[in-house]
Structures are given as structure tokens and as C-alpha cells.
Design a protein that fits this description.
403 residues, alpha/beta, Rossmann fold, eight-stranded mixed β-sheet, five-stranded parallel β-sheet, 13 helices, binds cytidine-5'-triphosphate
């Protein structure tokens, strides 16, 4: 999945000949499912038309503080635009604009928006070779990088002047790849491995029947998605579930019984940094599994059950540096039970769900949790979508692990 999917990209275009390439740049971001808005400096409109860019970006293009629409003056709110963006990219960035950015000059909409933006700002310089190596330009480039702005270096080649040298704006595809790599490298879980169990387990009674539960696996899938989006490689051990996930960092390992889940969890545990056990594992299984279908009789049927292995507790026993998180689904004495589970199973944290809370539980799309860590500090959260709960859980873990 592209890191740009659903992201808001604000493209600032300044007056360089490379502006004609921004049509491709907008297309590339749109193809990667980003939302794009374009701001142009007035002079850049000599190089590419706003109509081209508004058509490709599917959004109006702004270039002035005011726009006249049906004779009503409209204020283009630079602060709103700056806050809207997840990423701002200024390409091409001319020597003139770079110098103004470096010095806080604010005489057009693009510069005002740049000063208001709180998101990461990338810039792709484009100018003639002597301008690029001029000490004044170098000073602007250094200053901007010292502000935390990220430079996509110009490349060498034939320039609009006919001279050959450094100063060409990086090609659109290279700009996209550069930003993509930068985003990936800065993800907080980049290089980390995470083991997750989710869903129910089915314990066979005979070839056609089983003991199971209503767990949907939704919570675990939501956590897998959040962790993978933050760069983690996820080993998702999943009991029977209809949930789907498409992410190149998520490896799905389907299992059926508690025993299979136990074996799979132990296979991956030693290599991971974090393990979150969200599965609703059956605590008991039939002692003997009938090899053929049990026939109906008039008398009662007793099935002897034996305990399954406690996967979480077994991982707690062999834990080294892994951050181990369990779930506790409780109906009464919730906090007390969850804390005792945390200590008994040697966990770093436990996520408590209470069945007394409306909207928390197996099949629903919402959940209400309390996060409890090793110090037994409790952090209750509001009722939220499982996707939002997954973000809270991962954030709580991120606050407690050394990256
Ligand atoms: N768990 C596990 N293996 C089991 C049973 C539970 O890994 N055989 C894990 C669950 O994935 C969850 C945690 O243990 O993270 C707590 O599960 P829960 O059923 O609430 O607790 P139990 O230890 O089974 O205790 P009880 O059912 O008595 O509350």
C-alpha cells in the first residue's frame, strides 16, 4: 500500500521552467491515492496553466490571497491550507522563493502558506547552474534544512539556458520516490517486528463440530493495520475469521485450534520486538476428538474437556526483550482481574475490555478500553471505533518502548 494513500499533499509551484513537469507530479500523487491541492506563485502561471493543474488535481488552484468568484471576493485562507496538508512540497523551488522562505518573506499566498504549514515540507530546487552554486543560494538551502525542511537535490543535466550542469529539478518520479523513502524511513515502527494473535479458536469435537466463540478478529486486524502503516512487519496469527487485510508488511498465518495458535506464536515470538495477544483463545478443548461424526442418541451427551495451553502465559515465561501485551475481557472486578492477569502472566501491559460497557466486545465495530502498564497505572479511553482504539493501543506501546 502506498504511503500516500489518503494523504493530503500541498504542492507549491514557483516560476521556473521545470513548472511544466508538475502536471506529471500531480498525476503521480493522484495515482497513489493522495489528495492534492496546488498553490502557484503569480509568475509561475506563465509556465503552466492553473486549468491544467486544477483538472489534474481535481481541486481549485489558488495563487492570490483573494479570488474573484461571481464578483464576490473570496479570501484564500493560507492558515487553513497550511494546516490541511499532511505534506507540503515546493517544486520547482526557484532561487527567489528559496531565499524568501529562508528569510520569512511573505509577499504571496505560497509563502504565507509555507510559514503556516506545520507538516513536513519538502522542496525541489530548480535553477541555472551558477545560481545553484551561488553562496547566497547555498545559504538559503542550508538555512531551510536547518529549519527541518527537506531538500530534494537538483540533478545535473542540460538546463533551459543551454548550459549543462547542476540545477535541474529532480524528475517527478524521483521526487515521489524520494519523499516516499523519507516517509518510510521516519516511521516510528520501521524495522520493528510485531506478533499479533486475533480471532477465536475452534476446538474440534468431531469432524463437523467444534467449540468456539463469537470473536470476529476485528480488533486484532485493526491493530495490524495501524502497526504496519507505522512501518512494523506484522505476523498476524489468526483464528477462523472473515476479516481481510491487504498490506505488504502484514503476513497472515491462519490457524484453527489453540494448539496451532500456540505453535505459530512460539515460532515467531523469539524474533519480534512486540507481541500483542488479542485472540479469544478457547480455554478448554474436548479431551478426545471423535474420528467420525457423533450420532444423535436419546440420552444426554457428556463431553470431557481439558485445558488448552495458555499462549500468553507461556510467552511471558520465556520473554526476553519483547514488549508483551495481553487482553482481558472481564465482566466483574474488571481492574482487579486485569491487573492480576498482567502480573500472573508477566506482561508489560494489558488492554482491558469490560463487557459491562455498551459498544465494547466481540462483533461490534467499537470498543472501550483501559490500558494498564507494568506499574499498574490505568489509562481509560472513551468508546471509539476499533480503528481508533488500535491507534491508542499502539501509541501507548510506542510511549513505553525504546525505539
Ligand atoms: N490467552 C492465551 N491463551 C489462552 C487463553 C488466553 O493466549 N489459552 C490470552 C488472550 O489472548 C488474552 C489473555 O490471554 O490476551 C487473557 O485472556 P482471558 O480469556 O481474558 O483470560 P484467561 O487467562 O483465559 O482467564 P479467564 O478466562 O479466567 O478470565
Amino acid at each position: 500500500m502506498s504511503v500516500f494513500r489518503g494523504k493530503k499533499i500541498l504542492l507549491g509551484i514557483t516560476a521556473g521552467i521545470a513548472a511544466y513537469k508538475t502536471a506529471s507530479l500531480v498525476r503521480l500523487f493522484i495515482k497513489l491515492d493522495a489528495e492534492v491541492k496546488v498553490i502557484m506563485t503569480p509568475a509561475s502561471k506563465d509556465f503552466i496553466t492553473p486549468l491544467t493543474l486544477s483538472t489534474l488535481s481535481k481541486n481549485p488552484v489558488n495563487s492570490a490571497f483573494y479570488a474573484k468568484e461571481d464578483e464576490n471576493e473570496m479570501w484564500n485562507n493560507h492558515v487553513e491550507l497550511g494546516l490541511w496538508a499532511d505534506y507540503m512540497l515546493i517544486a520547482p523551488a526557484t532561487a527567489n522563493t528559496l531565499s524568501k522562505m529562508a528569510n520569512g518573506t511573505c509577499n504571496n499566498l505560497l509563502l504565507a502558506t509555507y510559514l503556516s504549514a506545520k507538516c513536513p515540507v519538502y522542496f525541489a530546487p530548480a535553477m541555472d547552474l551558477d545560481m545553484y552554486i551561488h553562496p547566497s543560494t547555498k545559504e538559503s538551502l542550508n538555512k531551510l534544512q536547518s529549519f527541518g525542511n527537506i531538500m530534494i537535490p537538483a540533478t545535473s543535466g542540460e538546463l533551459a539556458s543551454g548550459l549543462v550542469g547542476e540545477g535541474r529539478m529532480a524528475e517527478p518520479q524521483d521526487i515521489v520516490t524520494f519523499i516516499e523513502k523519507d516517509i518510510l524511513n521516519k516511521l516510528p515502527l520501521r524495522g520493528k517486528k510485531l506478533l499479533l494473535t486475533t480471532g477465536p479458536t475452534y476446538e474440534a469435537i468431531d469432524p463437523v463440530r467444534f467449540i468456539g466463540n463469537h470473536s470476529s478478529g476485528k480488533m486484532g486486524f485493526a491493530i495490524a493495520n495501524v502497526a504496519a502503516n507505522l512501518g512494523a512487519e506484522v505476523f498476524l496469527i489468526c483464528g477462523p475469521s472473515h476479516q481481510q487485510i491487504q498490506h505488504n508488511l502484514v503476513h497472515r498465518i491462519d490457524v484453527v485450534s489453540a494448539e496451532e495458535m500456540y505453535t505459530a506464536a512460539h515460532k515467531y515470538f523469539k524474533d519480534v520486538d512486540i507481541a500483542i495477544l488479542a485472540a479469544a483463545v478457547a480455554d478448554y478443548r474436548p479431551k478426545n476428538v471423535a474420528t467420525s461424526k457423533i450420532k444423535k442418541k436419546d440420552s444426554t451427551l457428556d463431553i470431557a474437556l481439558e485445558p488448552t495451553k495458555d499462549i500468553l502465559a507461556s510467552l511471558g515465561k520465556i520473554k526476553e526483550n519483547q514488549f508483551l501485551v495481553g487482553f482481558a475481557l472481564e465482566t466483574n472486578n474488571e481492574l482487579e482481574n486485569a491487573k492480576s492477569k498482567l502480573e500472573r502472566k508477566n506482561l508489560d501491559a494489558i488492554v482491558l475490555n469490560s463487557l459491562q460497557d455498551k459498544g465494547a466486545g466481540f462483533a461490534s465495530n467499537t470498543n472501550k478500553i483501559t490500558f494498564i502498564d507494568k506499574t499498574l497505572a490505568e489509562k481509560p479511553f472513551e468508546l471509539k471505533s476499533k480503528a481508533a482504539v488500535a491507534v491508542d493501543i499502539i501509541n501507548e506501546i510506542l510511549n513505553r518502548i525504546s525505539l
